[in-house]
Amino acid sequence: MLDGGTPAAPGLGKALLDWYRRCQRPLPWRGERDPYRILLAEVLLQQTRVAQAIPYYRRFLERFPTLEALGRAPLEEVLRVWQGCGYYARARNLHRLAQQTRTLPSTYAGLRKLPGLGPYTAAAVASIAFGEAVAAVDGNVRRVLSRLYAWEDPPPKRLQQLAQGLLEGALGWASPGEWNQALMELGATLCTPRRPACPRCPVERFCRGKGEHDRYPLPKSRRQKPLELTALVLRGPAGVYLEPRPEGALGGLWGVPMAEGPEGLEQLLRRFGLKEARLVGGLRHDFTHRRLQVWVYQAPWEGGEDPKKRPLSRLDQKILALLGAT
DNA sequence: AACTCGGGGAC
DNA sequence: GTCCCAGAGTT
């Protein structure tokens, strides 16, 4: 409960819970009991905003209503439903999980062993679906606690202890799942990164970082490295030539042939026995840590297939859209 | 501990 | 343009 001399202020828990029960956003997975659906929501929400996750949540459940249905489906079909959502390892892990287990474990320890379930997601599912008293610490909770205790860069371990102490202190009037979600909801709707709505915050009077939200937590800078790519769209009567992306980045998805660097075009031409290709245009695409400049070339081809039948990344969709080849 | 992995929305 | 989102896995 105590962590470096930062006890939970009395009254904080109740204030937060009252607010949460009144003001929570109506989301498709609110009140959900099916552990599979709760798990799906949590995985979709990994590094993904609620608004973006919702349509995928609905579509995914429509196509794979149960863990069994997911396990029976081919990976490529799972990825096709996931396409455009990013972080495709989530879909691969979820599919692998569904093939491993028909029934989800009901404890944090059991869930934690499953592919794609890290500390946060295992805790979220354990608490929300099974009522286990374990704190789920995500980016929201990290920010809320950092501000609440005016702690610029709280170490992950301390943060977990702090959140666990708060949760246990709140057990008298909140279920573990409800408490975890209340803390996250606060971070997602009021205690936001840029301009927090402190006047509307139910726990403002407990907040030691109030008025200095930009210090808590300290922003971590990350820089993007520029990368130049050449893409070759081979167009034939039946569509375009597609190939599976190599393992690693975008693994499991398909796309048009691409090569890195200034020699990219020559490599591609050599690879397909072509003399020339026509430059159709360029586009930019950002990954979290990369800034891509893509030069798109086009050449005639004999074969090809319908791109709609393959799972494609947003990057490849952009490339194909550039030529109207979708 | 430091990288890598998507995509998009808010500002 | 920048930041970061209901993070996890690998090195």
TrEMBL record:
SMART domains: ENDO3c. It comes from Meiothermus luteus. Pfam families: HhH-GPD, NUDIX_4. Its cofactor is [4Fe-4S] cluster. This is Adenine DNA glycosylase. Keywords: 4Fe-4S, DNA damage, DNA repair, Glycosidase, Hydrolase, Iron, Iron-sulfur, Metal-binding. Residues 44-189 form the HhH-GPD domain. PROSITE patterns: ENDONUCLEASE_III_1 (PS00764). GO terms for molecular function: 4 iron, 4 sulfur cluster binding; 8-oxo-7,8-dihydroguanine DNA N-glycosylase activity; adenine/guanine mispair binding; metal ion binding; oxidized purine DNA binding; purine-specific mismatch base pair DNA N-glycosylase activity.
